[in-house]
Design goal:
Layout: H1 29-37, H2 44-53, E1 56-60, H3 67-77, E2 86-91, H4 94-108, E3 114-117, E4 130-134, H5 135-144, E5 151-156, H6 164-182, E6 188-193, H7 199-202, E7 214-216, E8 224-228, H8 238-252, E9 257-261, H9 265-278, H10 295-302, E10 314-317, H11 322-327, E11 345-350, H12 356-360, E12 371-376, H13 379-382, E13 389-394, E14 397-403, E15 410-416, H14 419-427, E16 435-439, H15 443-449, H16 464-472, H17 489-502, E17 505-507, E18 517-519, H18 521-527, H19 533-540, H20 548-559, H21 580-592, H22 598-602, H23 604-618, H24 623-628, H25 633-653, H26 670-683, E19 688-691, H27 694-699, E20 712-714, E21 722-723, E22 736-744, E23 748-756, H28 760-764, E24 769-771, E25 795-797, E26 802-804
Parallel strand pairs: 1-6, 1-7, 2-4, 2-5, 3-4, 5-6, 8-10, 8-16, 9-12, 9-13, 11-12, 13-16, 21-23
Antiparallel strand pairs: 14-15, 17-18, 19-20, 19-22, 22-23, 24-25, 25-26
Helix pairs in contact: 3-4, 5-6, 8-9, 16-17, 16-18, 18-19, 19-20, 19-26, 20-23, 20-25
The protein binds adenosine-5'-diphosphate and magnesium ion.
Magnesium ion binds at residues 67-68, 157.
Family: Belongs to the DEAD box helicase family. DEAH subfamily.
Catalytic activity: ATP + H2O = ADP + phosphate + H(+)
EC number: 3.6.4.13
């Protein structure tokens, strides 16, 4: 077919990485039409000129303006992928990497040339020209090829999200770009951001001595009227409030999609099923409104173009409560539209763990005559743009993972969003026509309790994995690194100390740790595994007694979110007890079927994971098998992929290890179970807990002794902790346990628990013990328990001084 688009003539700058001719893409006609409407399309010339003439360019534009889908295509057409280098695009979210690669491949009508790579999977091939990947994937590539010689351009997308790896990539690329220039192989860096807050990158002398040019995409944005609630509902009410608001909009207001922001997958699913019950959708339902053709056109005529600067959010306080809120609707414009409560509603969920085929549904128009209603987590805030949303319902809440650096305790807290993020959510309503945003909180709460911006992730979470990657790139002094927003000194020090405790780094000879540390051979091996450092060490220590396939499976299972279907099942054909307590008991019973005797029983929840993986693989990993045994099919598939990928990385890192790629997994022997526990202990020694002994409870001078029963003391926390009821060791209550993580519910619970013998602690976690005689040959502890036994008389453990049994020679 003939080319549908005349190519603009573009200035060509010599670049060995870039072929001097433009590439012609013949796009499907429908794609052509959609592209023409996107704000970036009219800026192509400006954007490409800036890129051709500058090594680093920042592009800013509202979400939905076409940055992610179009700019890689501009680069492709300008020849940036026709020389030796390809175009690399990073995304902070896995969802975006996959769905955007599919979209770009489809728009270009060259699906094989546009690939993605995320931690678990990818479809990169020899024809790949544009590669979308998560920012973590590119960071890892840097460890083996610091100059990124495969690439002619790197596009850092969604830089405003300020994910840890995006920040670090920008820091690293600020140094790589000049190095590539020196080598005569210039690399282009394009930083793309949704909001206008780019000062952290642009006005940061430490990062870019010459500020890069910023191109603002002048985007079409219609005014959005903001309606604040008069009253702010409390924790238990806001979901109900969102439901009521959606019903009201649907019953009383003109056509247009509804987008509801809630906090997590469970809430998305709960709200979706309630809305579906209230407004059942039958596929062959007749449309009640009659003919809707012609309406789009008249509406299009009424469209005004709003410059970005004109885009002002008009805020209205709902003085008279609900009734007033409707009076505020600007119904005038849509008077012609029929409003009918009989119109069916087409309800779709959107969250990051949703299978990608289901995610893609939100981009398609709803069935004729239906109103689209998407219930989403903040995935829909910036990374994915849902077409034709007119009403946004914003609960104002977001789920944030909080870490306590001292204790390692992590909790999910539902918190207020930031002002910037709320305005971003509101903006979703004004993409195709004037819209409305219903904020389910008062303007006073917004003004007083919402932070201006969400702080960058790097300042909020532990960064051990990142520091290990940086060490593998031979960066000795991480405190001097040009971070766009540096993490606190404290968290850098904590990370370095943890790596030191794991044996991954050692102080630079003759210097103290404060002046930097250097990676050890163990650390280098660890850095090859795309998992958190302590998991990486588990792999590094498992090259004996055929432990590797088990350790790979455990690490995969512990890394993937929730293999067990303990919440509400994905597909509704599964009958589960409604009551939370009953449900936990049910799961505990179910898991017990998988637990063995002896050392394998001591492996506890980890044994359950191993058996579940083995059994599901043996049964051919079908959705039916998973449903029957309450396993999340998607998680099990991810575990399989991660096992495969880890197996490959282990084979690369330890070439002479005999390791098969057989997905089947027979249960570990008693010896292997024991060794697995010991290896895990040597990597997670800090997560030991000891049950409060009966004698202590009897002697305790407290009124309420019930708190002391079943309670455990950890090495790090003041408070007592408890084994979670879903654990198979819940009733056994062994004296010493090792846990994967602590989380806070109505009590503090330990998750993924295994049992320890007290005598193993001084052997495999000596850093946490106090010895009466000096420790000899500390390295001997890493031999899996078969070599030299460390000789000492007595020991105690942790700040509480738990007595531990003597260890014999
Ligand atoms: P930005 O990156 O500036 O936020 P995008 O390039 O993601 O913008 O989106 C541009 C347009 O492409 C949006 O209107 C969006 O709805 C549309 N789009 C993106 N992905 C898909 C898809 N998979 N199917 C249909 N339309 C899509
Ligand atoms: Mg984008």
């Amino acid at each position: 077919s003939p080319s549908l688009e005349a190519l603009p003539s573009k200035p060509i700058v010599q670049n060995p990485f870039r072929k001097v001719h433009n590439v012609v893409i013949q796009r499907p006609e429908e794609v052509q039409l959609n592209r023409a409407k996107l704000p970036v399309t009219s800026e192509e010339q400006t954007i490409m000129e800036a890129i051709n003439e500058n090594p680093i360019v920042v592009v800013c534009g509202e979400t939905g303006s076409g940055k992610t889908t179009q700019i890689p295509q501009f680069l492709y057409e300008a020849g940036y992928a026709s020389g030796d280098g390809i175009i690399g695009v990073t995304e902070p979210r896995r969802v975006a990497a996959i769905s955007m690669s599919q979209r770009i491949g489809l728009e270009m009508d060259r699906p094989r040339e546009v690939s993605y790579q995320i931690r678990y999977e990818g479809n990169v091939n020899k024809d790949t020209k544009i590669k979308l990947m998560t920012d973590g994937v590119l960071t890892r590539e840097l460890a083996s090829d610091f100059l990124l010689t495969k690439y002619s351009v790197i596009v850092i997308d969604e830089a405003h999200e300020r994910s840890v790896y995006t920040d670090v990539l920008i820091g690293l690329l600020s140094r790589i770009v000049p190095l590539r220039e020196k080598r005569g192989l210039p690399l282009k860096l394009i930083i793309m951001s949704a909001t206008l807050r780019v000062e952290d990158f642009v006005a940061n002398q430490n990062l870019f001595p010459t500020p890069p040019p910023v191109i603002k995409i002048d985007s079409r944005q219609y005014p959005v009227t903001i309606h604040f609630n008069k009253r702010t509902p409390n924790e238990s009410e806001y979901l109900e409030e969102a439901y009521k608001k959606a019903c009201k909009i649907h019953r009383e207001l003109p056509d247009g999609g509804i987008l509801i922001f809630v906090t997590g997958q469970q809430e998305v699913q709960a709200l979706c099923s309630r809305l579906r019950e209230t407004f059942p959708f039958r596929p062959n339902q007749t449309v009640v409104e009659g003919d809707t053709s012609g309406r789009d056109e008249s509406r299009a005529n009424r469209r005004k173009r709003f410059k970005l600067d004109d885009y002002a959010i008009q805020a209205i306080d709902e003085e008279e409560g609900e009734a007033a809120s409707d009076a505020e609707f600007d119904v005038e414009e849509d008077k012609a539209d029929q409003v009918s409560s009989r119109q069916p509603m087409f309800v779709l969920p959107l969250f990051s763990l949703l299978p990608s085929a289901k995610q893609a549904l939100v981009f398609q128009p709803p069935p004729a005559g239906c109103r689209l209603c998407v219930v989403a987590t903040n995935v829909a805030e910036t990374s994915l743009t849902i077409p034709d949303v007119k009403y946004v319902v914003d609960t104002g809440k977001t789920k944030t993972k909080l870490y306590d650096r001292n204790t390692g305790l992590s909790t999910f807290r539902i918190m207020w969003n930031s002002k910037a993020a709320s305005n971003q959510r509101a903006g979703r309503a004004g993409r195709t026509s004037a819209g409305h945003c219903y904020r389910l909180f008062s303007s006073a709460v917004f003004n007083d309790e919402f932070a201006q911006f969400t702080p960058p992730e790097i300042t909020r979470r532990p960064i051990e994995d990142l520091v290990l990657q940086m060490k593998a790139m031979n960066i000795e002094k991480v405190v001097n690194f040009p971070f766009p927003s540096p993490p606190s000194r404290e968290s850098l020090i904590v990370a370095e100390a943890e790596l030191l405790a794991l044996g991954a780094v050692q102080p630079v000879k003759g210097k103290t740790l404060a002046s930097g540390s250097r990676i050890t051979p163990l650390g280098r091996t660890m850095s090859n595994f795309p998992v958190a450092p302590r998991f990486a060490k588990m792999l590094a220590l498992s090259g004996q007694h055929d432990l590797m396939p088990y350790m790979i499976s455990l690490v995969a299972a512990l890394t993937v979110q929730e293999p067990f279907l303990e919440g509400k099942p994905e597909d509704d054909n599964q009958e589960l007890p409604e009551d939370a307590k009953q449900r936990q008991a049910y799961f505990s019973q179910l898991k017990k079927r998988w637990i063995g005797q002896g050392f394998s029983k001591m492996l506890g929840d980890l044994m359950v994971l191993l058996k579940a993986i083995g059994a599901a693989e043996f049964a051919g990993l079908t959705p039916e098998y998973c449903a029957e045994h309450c396993l999340r099919f998607k998680a099990m598939k991810e575990i399989r992929q991660l096992r495969q990928q880890l197996t490959n990385s282990v084979l690369l890192a330890v070439p002479n290890l005999e390791l098969s790629l057989d997905p089947n997994l027979s249960p570990p022997t008693e010896l292997q179970s024991k060794l697995l526990i010991q290896v895990v202990l040597s990597c997670m020694g800090g997560k030991i807990a000891r049950r409060i002994p009966a004698s202590v409870i009897a002697a305790a001078n407290v009124e309420d002794k019930s708190k002391l029963r079943h309670a455990y003391q950890t090495l790090s926390l003041e408070q007592l902790v408890y084994i979670h009821p879903s654990s198979v060791l819940f009733q056994d209550e062994p004296e010493f346990i090792l846990y994967q993580e602590l989380f806070e519910g109505n009590k503090i619970y330990c998750r993924n628990v295994l049992e320890l013998k007290g005598a193993w602690i001084p052997k495999f976690a000596p850093q946490h013990c106090i010895f009466s005689a000096p420790l000899e040959e500390p390295e001997a502890r890493f031999d899996g328990g078969n070599g030299n036994v460390i000789c000492h008389r007595t020991s105690t453990c942790g700040p509480h001084g738990w007595p531990l049994p003597s260890v014999e020679v």
